[in-house]
Amino acid sequence: MTEVLHHRTSAAPQHARGLELIGEYKGSGYKETTYLLRRSDGQVIQASHLIYLVASYVDGQSGYEQIAERVSGDLGRPVSAESIRFVVEERLRPYGVIAQEDGSVPEKLERSSPLLGLRFRVGLVPERVVVTVASVFWPLFLAPVVVITLGGLLALDVWLLFFHGITQSVDEVIDQPLLILASSVLFTVATAFHEIGHASASRYGGAKPSKIGAGFYLVFLVFYSDVTDTYRLSKAGRLRTDLGGVYFDALFALLMAGAYFLTGFEPLLIGVVLIQLDILEEFEPFARFDGYYVVSDLTGVPDLFKYIKPVLKSLVPFWETDERVRELKPWARGAVGAWVLTTVPILLALTVVTLYWLPWLLANTWESFLGHYGETSGAFAAGRVLDGMVGLLEIGILLTPVAGGVLFAALAGKRLGAATWRWLRDLDWEAVSRLVPWGRGGSGAVEGITTVRAGATPHSQGE
What we know:
Low-confidence stretches: 1-9, 427-463
Number of helices: 16
Distance between the termini: 42 Å
Structural class: alpha+beta
Helix content: 55-70%
Strand content: 5-15%
Strand order of the largest sheet: 1-2-3-7
Radius of gyration: 27 Å
Largest sheet: 4 strands, antiparallel
Shape: elongated
């Protein structure tokens, strides 16, 4: 019986457990229609029409000949059984789309590791809870509610800037340390509400949000919401999800304003201003904030950072345009090129400035830590618990970017080291030896290194 089953699975490939065929990537910036699949671990795989067709006709019962007939009918041209076998063995099985012959999937599958991506993620709210909460809030995305919200925020800002002002609110916060602690807690709640906005927008569009958690982004500890399932939505649906967080920021600002009008508590208006400043920051498109995903979904290119190297290479005179650039539609190529040419100088400038000021920042951070530590210890020793709690909060805010910076530097060093090793491994040392003097008083020789490279594979898409 075992031998019969083994023979059947060998002749009839089957999906890996939990595989989902998402379908066409709508609003794509690619010339060729692109399709998406999703593994059980959440990794999205980007595939061509042929590869997707093969995956869609795999059912655990049909052999390669039968799959070839169906694929040939859909494509309108003959495709051999051997070609289907090649796609299964060399393109789909290595990525965990098709199970091994014994029905298993390798424990370690390749996952996307996006540049400047979120690291050290920890889930805080499970998927079932997020789905339940999002199901409660999704009606807030109905058109009349959106119009009322945006109109209310505009009216609030006009009143706040031209009639009321915030000077009085600032004075009250400075005079009362408890308000600093309360403001930090309230801002944390607002940040969590922001992530619920992304999840609710995803639910409104028909996608299923996953967990909400926290992790380090660059040097900051941030919340995140997993809305990978929105890849199944149209461009409009994905953009709604991108903007869902800042829309919920606007709602939270209005709630705080409403609380102010009910209580007359001035510090609430500080929160209104800070939340809207955070909205402006979220629209920054040069790192993976909401503005970046807006640009990504407008262009229909899932990971813009992967196009930095191809775009820059394609700009070098007399060099052939990179294949990854040629695969984009003309308008998408222009938009991605403009993003790259804007983003690279800004990131380089920020890196140079950070490295220049880093010694000063570390020295002042250490000095500030010692001062806060002494004040906090003294407050607890004197029985001033409130002052001590505020001190702990300040120390946490002070040290979090340092911890994030250390982790970021470690990951960057690991990535740089791996890239350097690959470059050295693949270098044609025989050619180098003919150009560079090797040894004293002459030219040396070293045995060439041969590297076997794998062929092209379906492009994996992360987050």
